[in-house]
Amino acid sequence: QVQLVESGGGLVQAGGSLRLSCEASRSAFMNIFGWYRQAPGKQRELVATVNFAGSTKYADSMKGRVIISRDNAKNTVDLQMNSLKPEDTAVYYCNAVQSTFIPPRTYWGQGTQVTVSS
Fold first, then answer.
1. Closest CA to 91 of 22, 45, 30, 34
2. Is the pLDDT of residue 90 over 90?
3. In Å, what is the CA distance from 50 to each residue of 10, 12, 106, 117?
4. What is the pLDDT of residue 25?
5. If you average pLDDT over residues 26-54, what whole number do you get?
6. 114 near 18, Cβ under 8 Å?
């Protein structure tokens, strides 16, 4: 069973930065790593994804403020967040997909709280 362990959340003032990290518990290859977030009373939404080749996608609301990166050797993914806003406050979840399986296998971390104060 693959587990995703997140770290790096916390409280930061508006305009500040945080770096989230996520490590997969086994050396199983992940085709896609991603970060999602869920604010109180809202649906979970995409923040960013990165595939095995390093190609990235970002939510429009986060473009220019976040960078997602992965280390295939360590089976980890990081999310560098800059210029944080109060509306970025949410629980951030690490996600991983093994698309070589049919159907694809999807894994989620337990979530890490990010709170941005104004």
1. 45
2. yes
3. 23, 25, 14, 28
4. 84
5. 94
6. yes
Q: Which residues pair with 68 in a beta bridge?
A: 79
Residue 41 has pLDDT above 90, yes or no: yes
| Chain centre distance of CA 82 | 14
Residue 1 in this model has a pLDDT that exceeds 90:
no
Q: Sign of dihedral through CA atoms 7, 10, 94, 69? A: negative
DSSP string, the chain: ---EEEE--EEEETT--EEEEEEESS----SEEEEEEE-TTS--EEEEEEETT--EEE-TTTTTTEEEEEETTTTEEEEEE-S--GGG-EEEEEEEEETTSSSPEEEE---EEEEEE-
Residue 68 contacts residue 76 (beta carbons within 8 Å): no
**Amino acid, res. 69:** S
Arithmetic mean of pLDDT, 28-48: 95
Q: Which amino acid is at 45?
A: E
